[in-house]
UniProtKB/TrEMBL annotation:
<dbReference type="InterPro" id="IPR036361">
    <property type="entry name" value="SAP_dom_sf"/>
</dbReference>
<dbReference type="Pfam" id="PF12949">
    <property type="entry name" value="HeH"/>
</dbReference>
<feature type="domain" description="HeH/LEM">
    <location>
        <begin position="52"/>
        <end position="83"/>
    </location>
</feature>
<dbReference type="InterPro" id="IPR036269">
    <property type="entry name" value="Rho_N_sf"/>
</dbReference>
<protein>
    <submittedName>
        <fullName>HeH/LEM domain-containing protein</fullName>
    </submittedName>
</protein>
<dbReference type="InterPro" id="IPR025856">
    <property type="entry name" value="HeH/LEM_domain"/>
</dbReference>
């Protein structure tokens, strides 16, 4: 199993293979700290993990889901958007 490297660009977050890191950097991505919820994206615990996310992680998750938000929004507002999206996803 390869070790993926976390990168971010604005509110977007990815984990990339080391062989593609240089190409991502050329495109404006920068290496960053690993998001806590990255492991939860594979299945269980996603909603519970989102309660402990920071503002940057919430923004990244919302961007990943394609949810628009005010860049100046406070953490509680970002969390409410993510929680609403999780509820909408459960009802589908």
């Amino acid at each position: 199993m390869s070790h993926l490297i976390p990168v971010s660009k604005g509110a977007d977050y990815l984990e990339v293979h080391p062989n593609t890191l240089a190409e991502h950097k050329k495109l404006g991505w920068t290496q960053c700290a690993k998001h806590q919820d990255a492991a939860a994206q594979d299945g269980e615990g996603d909603k519970g993990a989102s309660d402990k996310l920071g503002v940057a992680e919430l923004r990244g998750k919302l961007a990943e889901l394609g949810i628009e938000f005010d860049p100046k929004a406070k953490k509680a507002d970002l969390q409410a958007l993510l929680d609403a999206a999780a509820q909408d996803g459960e009802g589908a």
